[in-house]
Design a protein that fits this description.
By secondary structure, the chain is mainly alpha-helical. The chain has a single domain (10-406), classed as MFS general substrate transporter like domains (Growth Hormone, Chain: A, Up-down Bundle). The protein has helices spanning 16-36, 38-44, 49-75, 82-102, 107-123, 125-137, 144-169, 172-190, 201-208, 221-227, 229-250, 252-258, 263-275, 277-282, 284-290, 293-312, 317-325, 331-345, 351-379, 382-406. α16 packs antiparallel against α17. The radius of gyration is 20 Å and the shape is globular.
């Protein structure tokens, strides 16, 4: 496989992590306003809990289908690259937020536009990860764990600030933040060009991404599953983990209101779980030298389970914050461990698809959570909703552990 390390100017190497960190920071500021505050925005615009669940489920279903398809296109030679897809996504979110801000919309229009924004913002997350490993292979010294961790820190700071602002000034503030961060993201990705003998990354990566060692590209789901058995079964466990995770995040405002809090406490809770991601993600390179990625994924599954189990018995905000602190071992471990697992286990031309399948599994977990959680919340209450999430997550732990411990990670192993 061709390496391009010599083509990256030495004096610029120190800036790659900073530039990728800024790109991550902008992404996760918007992730906070679009995803963490989705229920806040929609409830303020007249949606019921069930309608919120249906909207988010619809967005997640489309996203789950869309992500592997677009990853397959990016993996093949052609004009669509990681950079260009990110830029398209940013433009769509910017346009949707502008429409919601400037044009009076009924519930039907809000439903469609917000679903598109929510779906697209989630869909380009695995492409962001793939972009990092693509540039690393081209010789750029991007420290993924630190950049991703600082992205979570930007989410944390946004969550801590935005809750109180929304409480005082209304949900339209969320649209203002989306618009500004998309403008910043566009500027960052336009200038995020890999210098390789005067060529841009589109030309260069079409060579490095498609030099197949065995001549087989696993573009179909069946061939991909046959090539990576443990990974594909673990994705079922991932769906279960994120059923519980999304249940908490999407309806956190209702959980907190049940405990006597409001948007300000929602901001604090989101800040706590997000800021705790930074140390783990920043140190993931060191941690992986001690614990393998597959074992870290199992550990994260157990942490997801404990996190939601605590909420079943929560009676005050202190216990809510205790539950959120398990983000340190759950999401904070899962995301970088999954990225490194894909990068180390899969052939290069399968890696964008691998990252996309992880995000699709996360998304599918969100689909089931959105469809079920809102209905349970409206008809049976928060306690029943959380018990359901706990049971599903426990099943995921069993499946995930079996996959990583009993099945081959790659065909022929």
């Amino acid at each position: 496989m061709t390496e391009n390390k010599a083509t990256v100017p030495t004096e610029k190497k120190g800036f790659w992590t900073l530039r990728y960190t800024l790109l991550n920071a902008a992404y996760f500021v918007a992730f906070c306003t679009i995803h963490a505050y989705a229920a806040v925005y929609l409830l303020a615009n007249g949606f019921s809990n069930t309608e919120v669940g249906i909207l988010l489920a619809a967005a997640n279903i489309v996203s789950a289908i869309f992500q592997p398809i677009i990853a397959g296109v990016i993996d093949r030679p052609g004009p669509l690259t990681n950079r260009s897809f990110i830029l398209i996504s940013v433009a769509v979110i910017f346009a949707g937020s502008m429409i919601l801000w400037l044009i009076p919309c009924g519930k039907a229009a809000i439903f469609i536009i917000y679903a598109v924004i929510y779906m697209i913002q989630f869909a380009y997350q695995p492409v962001m990860t793939a972009l990092c490993f693509e540039y690393q292979k081209a010789g750029c010294d991007i420290y993924y764990g630190l950049a991703r961790g600082l992205g979570s820190a930007s989410f944390a700071v946004t969550a801590a600030i935005i809750g109180g602002i929304v409480e005082r000034n209304g949900e339209t503030v969320l649209l203002y933040v989306n618009i500004v961060t998309m403008l910043i993201s566009a500027l960052l990705i336009i200038t995020f060009v890999l210098p390789c003998n005067g060529k841009d990354d589109k030309t260069d990566t079409s060579v490095t991404k498609h030099e197949a060692k065995d001549g087989v590209i696993h573009n179909s789901l069946s061939s991909f599953a046959g090539a990576y058995p443990a990974f594909m079964v673990f994705l079922i466990g991932t769906i279960c983990f994120f059923f519980a995770h999304n249940m908490i995040n999407d309806f956190m405002i209702q959980i907190i209101r049940n405990l006597g809090g409001g948007e300000t406490e929602l901001g604090y809770a989101n800040f706590l779980q997000a800021i705790l991601e930074l140390p783990v993600m920043a140190l993931i390179g060191f941690i992986l030298k001690k614990i393998s990625a597959d074992n870290l994924l199992i550990l994260s599954g157990f942490a997801f389970f404990i996190k939601i189990l605590i909420l079943v018995f929560t009676v005050n905000m202190a216990m809510m914050y205790l539950s959120q602190s398990f983000q340190l071992f759950a999401y904070a471990v899962f995301i970088p461990a999954a990225a490194y697992y894909v990068n180390s286990t899969m052939n290069e031309y399968d890696q964008v698809k691998g990252q996309a399948y992880v995000t699709s599994a996360i998304t599918i977990g969100g689909v089931f959570s959105n469809l079920i959680s809102g209905v349970i919340l409206d008809h049976a209450g928060i306690k029943v909703m959380l018990i359901t999430g706990t049971v599903v997550c426990a099943v995921g732990v069993i499946i995930g552990t079996y996959a990583m411990k009993r099945l081959p990670h790659k065909k022929g192993q």
